[in-house]
């Protein structure tokens, strides 16, 4: 059996990568991808702990989370498409109509 | 019987005012007969009351509560009844005359409405039984004069004359009000227990408490009240509105200058005479201001060419006499009131007469300028002769009303001097009397004598105008002789009704004059008024009549600075209007405005600008880029976690 | 006897406001009815009012939020009743005057009614919480009246009005909270009850002198801004200049009175317990407002701005009379509130009528209007005369009461203040009124105004009614000053006990 710490290590590595991407990238698609990575790191944790303590709740949450991520991705990409139509770009720095 | 209806004396003219203002536009002559009838009814009522109270020497007093500690009431004593009779009588004649004079003016209804209100206000002033009510009617008189002087409001000069009249008298009113407030305060401090139906500012209460008020306070009160009288009665230095007041119709000038308004100031001082008597310094001020005004105004009357302006200055001058007559009362006590009031009554007859005659002339000739008249007597016999009657009595021709009344004031002024109270009022009075005779006949000769100096309209006025002139002329000439002794006694004893003890007041005031002291009058002093009156007329005849021997240019040339100053009216207009009103007062206003905009509002705007600026700086932090916020959150979280970790390791934070 | 008269009086305009908003074109009829009914109720209340008593009458009290001691308590006494009458009268006349308003008229009339609700609430509320709510309610309709129907700089004026008065009321709110949190009833509960809290301010175990002075200053500041008194007056001219006529009338006639009302209702009962420097402060601010306001009015070129500054000047009498602390002066100050409410209506209506007939309010561009508008000229002249203090009209009675009462007061230096007012204020007041009257109305008519005629009859009607009221209360001030005198007595009693005179 793979020790729990490796799962947690993997999850935190993915979380850090996702967070780094989220903080540094300006491209809408890349941001979406980073968000997915963050979510999935959380999912890994959920599943890992669920298997570790014999409790199925964690896996149920993970499934919810995956479904939610799908919905979120759908809405997010739809917004990006609209933005692309309006501005011709999805570089978020250029989309600043509501900024001071 | 009549006295139960005393309120109608004011009520009827007010009713006439209401009727005229609403119905006048649809009636012939603007509904003027309402006003005439109401005023005449007032005269009948006053006369009825006079018949009732004169034989037993009674007074009428009715009063009711108004608000707070003030009341409204009617007081008819000798002082009031002679004023009521005079005002109603003269105003009836003036209104009748106006029926003819204002004929054809589109604003006739407005004229008679305002004239009715004016009469009502003056009558209300006269029979007030307390100082506050007197002040209220006093102000209403001011309002009506504003409306009437500005009657031809389309004329800019009339509009600004009206404003000037109101503002200048307002300055006096302010002092009057301050006097009332000061008097009220002193009365309050006495903590009087008033009998039922008595109020603090009632004259009776005031007279009763004169002995209790500190003398220095009395002096201030008297001076402030006199300030009001100075404004209303056109005394120096607030006389400037009076000559301008002739911008209104001539009948208005007649009303203002003779029967109503200007006499109010004299009446006030007469009414408050016990108070003045207890404050000899104030009385001295009255005597000197009055005397000086008499002389000062007479000098300007000498050079004016506008017929109404000459008369206006003569009014100022005669009012000065009345004031001086009261002021020199320090020498003779309450009888000064009788003397001064007699001149007031006589003056209102002949001044009304003179103004109406002048109006008649202006009406016919079509100009105010005496240089364009001359020889009018030929075409206007009645006007000319009645005006001659008025001029004789104004000039103090022996045995006319004006002679008796003025003579008595001069005699009193002489006693004032002889008793060591100061000769100046006497000197002022005598010199002014001479000048009066001169300018009066200068006016008459320039207008009626000689040859026509321009092509004016030549016709006599209608009888509705001449009738009042004849009646007034009779009174102006002959009223004085039969009535004077009774009058002095009746009005002079006015304050006995209130139990005013002048001896006691003299002690308070610190008069060092023994009463009843006989003053020896040399023969020359006795006949001096006759010499002056006749001499003045002769001097005028020598310069201006058909028998003229001298030309006025012999004594004054065009470039003479004295003449210039007189014609410029001592530069009062420049000083009061151009300098004081427009530079000083308006200047303060502009500076205040600047302070308000720049400093006070500036501070407010500055505070708001600082807030906005601070917010503007602060909002830069809100970049709108979510990643920046996220960075901050992550860093914050990291710091927090480290701190928690350290804390759990037992490190003191 | 009407049950729940006060609640009814407040509720009816509120309901009418909703209906007016919904009814569109018929809004003005709804507004007329919705303001006439409160007028009838208030007159009925005046009839039934026990004029000899200084207790609260028509009191209604219901629990509202018992947890924090908030109650719905309303009632009137001699301080509030005259102002209620004023509010109902003015509200009706403003509706009549605005009869021709066509721009978004349903909203306009709804806002007028809402304003009446707020003002009536302020004048009757006896619970600080309720009082504050109504106090703020009044701001909203006025903000929109200025912001929507205003002149060219309406946005600036509306915001300035709102923020300035709102900041003042927030400071007032802090003071109210300080009062609230310092006091517990004998049962240990908190309460917002106004009379209880004010009555407790003498209790030094609950209120330290320091705290009380701070509270007092906060309240005073709130009311001074509303009145407005120099130097917190600068929002007023801006608001007036941009506000529509109806807004100006309500602002000057009713909203300013809220400040004075607060002075009598809240500030004066606290006066005996705070530093006496505040008394002097009030009197001095009053004097400065009168004189300085008068000079400011003289300098104005815009007729409406002149009238606005004249309000500052006239409201100074309220402060002076309140600070002088004799029965006559306090009564005069209360009456000044009432009479200024009536008079200023006429002045602002005149300015408004000139604005929409002649197209300008700049005094120097006008001239000779009396020629074409004789009826209007008479009414305007009457209003100006009333404003400059002509006897026979109510302004005179109020001013003389204040001056005479203050002069006879035992407070230090009062005589000096009164003399400053008399010599520095009265003649100047007459000056700017007469000067502007002459420029606007008299003289030869300017060519561009030859086509003018008298304004609509509804405008003349509302002005005439006001003039008649002004004259009525000038001749018969006792109708209303008697109850003011009764109300003034308890306010000055503590001070009269200190010194013997000044009792009239």
Task: Summarize the structure in words.
The complex is a heterotrimer of chains A (about 100), B (about 650) and C (about 500). Helix content of chain A is about 75%, strand content about 0%. By secondary structure, chain A is mainly alpha-helical. Chain B is mainly α and about 650 residues long. Helices cover about 70% and strands about 0% of the residues of chain B. In chain B, β1 (about 60-65) and β2 (about 70-75) form a beta hairpin. Chain C has helices at about 5-25, 25-50, 80-95, 105-125, 130-150, 155-180, 195-200, 210-225, 235-240, 245-270, 275-300, 305-325, 325-360, 375-385, 395-405, 415-440, 455-475, 480-500, and strands at about 55-65, 70-75. In chain C, strands 1-2 form a two-stranded antiparallel ribbon. Chain C has about 500 residues and is mainly alpha-helical. Chain C folds into two domains: about 1-170 and about 235-265, no CATH class; about 275-505, no CATH class. In chain C, about 70% of the residues lie in helices and about 5% in strands. Chains in contact: A-B, B-C.
Outline of the structure:
By secondary structure, chain A is an all-alpha fold. Helix content of chain A is about 75%, strand content about 0%.
